[in-house]
Design a protein that fits this description.
With 353 residues, the chain is of the alpha+beta class. It has three domains: 60 residues, no CATH class; 85 residues, Non-ribosomal Peptide Synthetase Peptidyl Carrier Protein, Chain A, CATH 1.10.1200; 118 residues, Beta Barrel (Cathepsin D, subunit A, domain 1), CATH 2.40.70.10. It is built from twelve helices and twelve strands. GO terms for molecular function: aspartic-type endopeptidase activity. Keywords: Hydrolase.
Length: 353
């Protein structure tokens, strides 16, 4: 059948979706189309964004004229204008000059989730990345020519981590913020930003784990890894990193990489950990884990949420084993230089400390 003239609906430019669907119904009536013809021709008058939404509908909804038009109005009508605006913001977002890949991805994810649509999220991420994180790294690592969008994003994340390790050493055992302020930070009764720990289960072992937003990658202590082999062998893969930088700017050699099933709350998550010989904590969850598992820390609530709130676990209180706090006071004003060992005099009321 020959299609009549009607402007194509554009989710970003058409001002009034309610008016447009009314004109479409009038066109169907004028063309003497039945309900089947009206629903089949619908895809010829919508843009790719609306088509992506249409493809997610059930066949029953697609083939029912009243249901299709109602759902279209609910999704693109006046009430959803604000969400479409957020979606357009995500589509136009670009990575800032001093913004890490992980931070940029978090901004786009937030806008897409607020807009209620994540179908094109990976394309938006790849399109908004700075050029140095896309073309050069893909060539250097030998990715196949027809790489997928997900592979390109993973490559950009790894390139960003590698660049940070080379140009700006990242500690793997420090949870101090990137730009700490000299003021005393308010503290609740729970953990501080430098001591956020949770209990995770791997097999039959329960491990007290540090959640470290200052660590670029997640790591596991060699002894901890060996203890896990009692229950089940976890094969070691070749590491894509030769080493990492510690809190004292010391180079720590990576012995290998292992994928472990980490049980946190109600979820079992598979994640890659770098095996280190010289690390104080048995297990550290870094920014790569935070990004991959869509994790967020709520310091007021003292909880770690995973997969956009699918499960939550309480953070430990950062106390000593006898559940008491020890406060120390320096004898004079002291400025501590980052990544340096310092020997200072201080007084302490608790002499058993």
């Amino acid at each position: 059948m020959e299609l009549p003239k009607l402007e194509k609906f554009n989710a970003f430019e058409t001002e009034n979706a309610d008016m447009w669907i009314q004109r479409y119904e009038l066109m169907c009536e004028f063309s003497k189309w039945d309900d089947v013809q009206a629903t089949r021709a619908f895809t010829c008058f919508i843009d790719d964004y609306v088509l992506a939404w249409y493809m997610l509908l059930d066949n029953e909804d697609r083939n029912n004229k009243q249901t299709l038009f109602r759902k279209f109005t609910e999704r693109f009508g006046r009430k959803s204008i604000e969400k479409v605006g957020l979606w357009k913001d995500a589509a136009d977002l670009k990575q800032k000059q001093y913004e890490t890949v992980s931070q940029f991805i978090s901004r786009i994810e937030r806008l897409c989730f607020l807009a209620g649509q994540t179908l094109m999220m990976e394309q938006f991420i790849l399109r908004g990345l700075r050029p140095e994180f896309v073309v050069p790294f893909v060539t250097a690592t030998g990715l196949k020519q027809n790489f997928s969008v997900s592979e390109a994003i993973d490559a950009a994340l790894l390139a960003d981590i590698t660049m940070q390790l080379v140009s700006k050493p990242e500690p793997v055992t420090s949870a101090i913020e990137d730009n700490p302020t000299p003021q005393i930070q308010p503290r609740s009764d729970g953990c501080s930003r430098a001591d956020c720990k949770i209990n995770v289960r791997i097999g039959s072992s329960v491990i007290h784990t540090l959640v470290d937003t200052g660590a670029a990658v997640s790591v596991i202590n060699t002894n901890t890894y060996k203890s896990l082999q009692v229950d089940k062998p976890y094969p070691v893969d070749k590491s894509d990193l030769l080493g990492v930088r510690g809190v004292n700017d010391n180079f720590i050699r990576v012995l290998g990489k292992v994928t472990l099933p980490v049980e946190i709350g109600k979820l079992t998550l598979f994640h890659d950990f770098y095996i280190l010989d010289d690390v104080n904590m048995p297990l550290i969850l870094g920014r790569d884990f935070m990004h991959d598992q869509k994790a967020e820390i709520s310091f007021p609530k003292q909880v770690l949420s995973l997969q956009n709130g699918m499960t939550e676990v309480s953070l430990s209180q950062g106390q000593d084993r006898d559940h008491t706090h020890n406060f120390v006071r320096v004898l004079s004003d002291v400025t501590f230089q980052p990544r340096q060992r310092n020997l200072k005099l201080f007084s302490c009321k608790n002499r058993k400390f």
